[in-house]
């Protein structure tokens, strides 16, 4: 695609395209039988009866060895020496792989920035976070490997660590990567519109500094890798529960110094959860591959929970300084954001994604013409940050939505009124946001009116007033969130200057691929470029294909285990950033439609009708005008395989269609840094009431309402499940989960006793509402929907707490300890006689 | 997360068990429910040479009433005690506190005496034993010792048990139907940040027990003759125990939790008694 001339503003072509697709959507509705209905999940019978096929359960090659990772106890230290002789002397120990082996046999991982930040699969020369892999012990069993690991002697020279991202920017701070000369490895400034003029002319300015915590969403299943090296073709064959994006596959192949096909990666059919985290298994894929090469035997490594919490992956923490120029009525005229994001000790591909994934949509749900953004990437002595559900959205919206609440307070306006005045008006869709996002469709105001209507807000206000009259702390919060779906693979290049981008060439698009196959007996099978994580993609793909082929979802066999040597995939493949619905689902629709067209053409000849008169329905292929003139689906399918002679002239025999979908709206960043970061933009509006318990300092969610507009829902039951999952994780971020380091960089939340994942007992009920404003940019009209509540819930609860306590700063997670600090006030010192008698009574009871 | 190699012994009698303990002393560990021990083994926090599994010793798997006390054998699980029909009547404090011990699944394996042996400063069962002024029965080849709770639990994860001794039972005195229990934890089933329990001794006095403020549970007698007196007693206790700091709470927050919880629990126990 040409870069110049493809303006980022909505052009006539986009609109014409949008209108034609809208017609297509309406046209399709007539023949949809299964799409849009709550078809039961094909996945569940196996999963619910203990027959899931997870990575750790699968058989391994004979002679497989087991590995254990030796990890750094220090946040920052030089590796003075490693003595593995005692470990190697143990029976059953095959190798102790160190950073020097890894440096000799592999290259550092590619990163998104040109910066001298070299990361290998083991620490080389120095360690930079607690838990960093330093050596790999390979033995006959995991037990032996762990025993031997205790005998690996590593001498460290401990260095000062830096944990606070603000302190890390200080010129006197210890350098994580001395060659980079600074811990702040990227600063980019963006300006859209005329922000300065808007600020100068504004009625008022409202500013806030907001911290988003460091956390994760922990899957039940940790990382698993089984790697084999085949000297005969110098190739690696790896099984791992990797989730994508497959843009990481070239990163691994390059590190291993082999062409892509020599790294055959297989992904198992089932997964014990991912939430973004399973991308970061990739350094271990390379490590296990190298260990297999060194030992000449297959090597298996299964991450345990301790390793997972200390070193698997984390979302980045962010400090945002945000300021709005506002009119008297609360209208936001301009925004300024200074975002400082902490990526930990390394910048792993595709970081700093969270800082840029939302970039085009940085103005959120609001119609704001002028915005300045400063994006800063900082490294500290923490585990590296990477993908996590929400991916930059929660960080942005916590700051933006807290700011909107502050605008209402400082201008003495109603919070909801300020939101409504600033929402993108319905008539403006498709709407081009200041930083370049093309919001495909929406009716935000209607969503807000529905949510607050039907007595819901009145009920919350009643509850608040009653609680406050009784002297209790009760607050109401709101949050409005635009939820992106399917990332533009070019968004990360916004990190580079336009000049650097010109040199490198444009990056854009998001390629999705699906193959539909019909066998000689008419059985339909589907493969796709997604990795299974439990979402129910098999079911939805079966619905899509069944509708197009006039079959039932039960007739469509969907196989989603992935083999990079045989399956269709491109760099965007994988399951992340809500790409399934706007991406892979569309490719399935297109592939199935092509298959249907081919079957119609074959049947037309046999039915003696025009192809336009042929329809696929009820397992038959028949004349639309004379349904009795029909052939069984399997019969027509068989023709394509057995009787090429009967096919229309020029038609290729057999039935296999691979469709590729890459929507044209995903353009590269423009020369003025505007970027349409995603294809679809859904909307979430949340409203809640919380009460703070003065006895135990806990935040109790009294009522929570969440409205979603994700376009057309392909399977409302599955979407609802996704939304509830995101809600739970939103609650986790708001109230429970946080990775905590002390000042020296020691990790304080290394078990589930300290890193608190809420259980079902902690999750409040949620009332989910839906409206459907179909996307005009995808043939199915559906949008991504699985991350919105991760983005909205932390902001909504923070706003409610701020309202309950009348405070400006609410730090998340709002733990009892933090709430206590906010409300406790000064403690009276004990009277001297009380203290003395207390000591006396201690002695007494000690008897 | 794999333990070091160890031997496993599964004696059928207490005599056999104490013989193994006599041979190995501190190198041995007693395995009952394993809900704490197995995690500690996997973390290599403890590295015993032999595990002595006492769960199949019939003599230890009993709940008995003897002279005003309920004796709970060392193999009795928490869920078994919770399901014991007489519990609410004989030991209302445990009926109130046991649902807070871990989760349904962990209570199915975890034992009452195992929790006492582990001596976590925030645990509900050691708090209950201390408050009820119960006893721990220890057997070894040298004989049998019966220690009051306050002597048995010596500090953070520290008890008076010698390496060759086996806890065979805990004895909880039957204290009439007036008990109250509350705790504050981040999630249901977590270790408490602060737990407070009370039993009424008379119309004008309760016994108050506090866990999570110091290295071991504290027990005090508090006169219930008026809110001011209760407040002073709680205030005194808050400063005496001081509290401590961890990821979940500051010492100050622990004192405030005690200030908030104790009057409520005292009031509940007093009302139960009335």
Strand and helix map with partners:
The complex is a heterodimer of chains A (847) and B (274).
Chain A: H1 12-29, H2 44-48, E1 65-71, E2 77-83, H3 85-88, E3 93-98, H4 99-105, E4 126-127, E5 133-139, H5 142-149, E6 153-158, H6 165-168, E7 184-192, H7 195-201, E8 204-212, E9 224-230, E10 235-240, H8 248-256, E11 263-267, H9 282-295, E12 299-302, H10 305-312, E13 317-326, E14 332-342, H11 353-356, E15 370-378, H12 393-410, H13 415-422, E16 431-432, E17 438-439, H14 444-452, H15 456-469, E18 473-487, H16 498-504, E19 512-518, E20 524-528, H17 537-549, E21 556-558, E22 562-563, H18 580-607, E23 614-617, E24 620-623, E25 630-632, H19 633-642, E26 656-661, E27 678-692, E28 699-709, H20 716-736, E29 767-770, H21 788-805, H22 816-823, H23 832-846
Parallel strand pairs in A: 1-12, 10-11, 14-15, 20-21, 28-29
Antiparallel strand pairs in A: 1-5, 2-4, 2-6, 3-5, 7-15, 8-13, 9-10, 9-12, 11-22, 13-14, 16-17, 18-27, 19-20, 19-26, 23-24, 24-25, 27-28
Helix pairs in contact in A: 8-9, 12-13, 12-21, 17-18, 20-21
Chain B: E1 7-9, H1 14-24, E2 28-31, H2 37-42, E3 50-53, E4 63-66, E5 69-73, H3 78-83, H4 87-90, H5 92-97, H6 104-109, H7 112-118, H8 124-131, E6 135-140, E7 143-148, H9 149-152, E8 153-155, E9 158-159, E10 166-173, E11 179-184, E12 194-202, E13 205-211, E14 218-223, H10 227-241, H11 251-273
Parallel strand pairs in B: 1-3, 2-3
Antiparallel strand pairs in B: 4-5, 5-10, 6-7, 6-10, 8-9, 11-12, 12-13, 13-14
Helix pairs in contact in B: 10-11
